[in-house]
């Protein structure tokens, strides 16, 4: 197996709201499809997919009975500066996200903060001066 993630799928309760958040709020470029049941956004290095949560659980073959709290998964968006962290967090909040942790210097020497999208997915926005992840 190659060490690569090519697609991240978020199971969402309200597909149209999620599409608006990622397309209009965060400005991600949506890939046109013939389906109204899924959305794809081309990102650098991977694709982001939005799919109705109930349909995703059926596709996996599991019950959609997970608690509504933290799923144990976060997504990360790395930027080139501390100022860029704050800008992305502000953009996400303006688009309807909840600010969970404002940008701050962190124990590992970088700068990061967290937001939760309207569907409850947690995103870290980080500046890492030790690795070029941008």
Automatic annotation (TrEMBL):
**UniProtKB keywords:** Transferase
**Coiled-coil segments:** none
Any GO MF annotation of the entry: transferase activity
| TM regions (residue ranges) | none
Per the UniProt entry, the Enzyme Commission number(s) are 2.5.1.-
Q: Does the keyword DNA repair apply?
A: no
Q: Which InterPro entries match?
A: Glyas_Bleomycin-R_OHBP_Dase (IPR029068), Glyas_Fos-R_dOase_dom (IPR004360), VOC_core (IPR037523)
What's the protein here called?
Metallothiol transferase FosB
| Organism expressing this protein natively | Vreelandella titanicae
């Amino acid at each position: 197996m190659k060490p690569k993630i090519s697609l991240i799928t978020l199971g969402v309760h309200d597909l149209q709201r999620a599409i608006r958040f990622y397309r209009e709020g965060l400005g991600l470029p949506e890939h046109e499809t013939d389906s109204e049941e899924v959305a794809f956004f081309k990102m650098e290095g991977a694709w982001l997919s939005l799919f109705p949560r109930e349909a995703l659980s059926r596709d996996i073959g599991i019950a959609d009975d997970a608690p509504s709290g933290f799923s144990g998964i976060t997504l990360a968006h790395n930027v080139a500066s501390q100022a860029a962290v704050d800008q992305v967090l502000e953009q996400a909040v303006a688009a309807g996200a909840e600010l969970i942790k404002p940008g701050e210097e962190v124990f590992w020497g970088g700068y990061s903060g967290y937001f939760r999208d309207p569907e409850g997915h947690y995103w870290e926005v980080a500046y890492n001066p030790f690795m070029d992840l941008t």
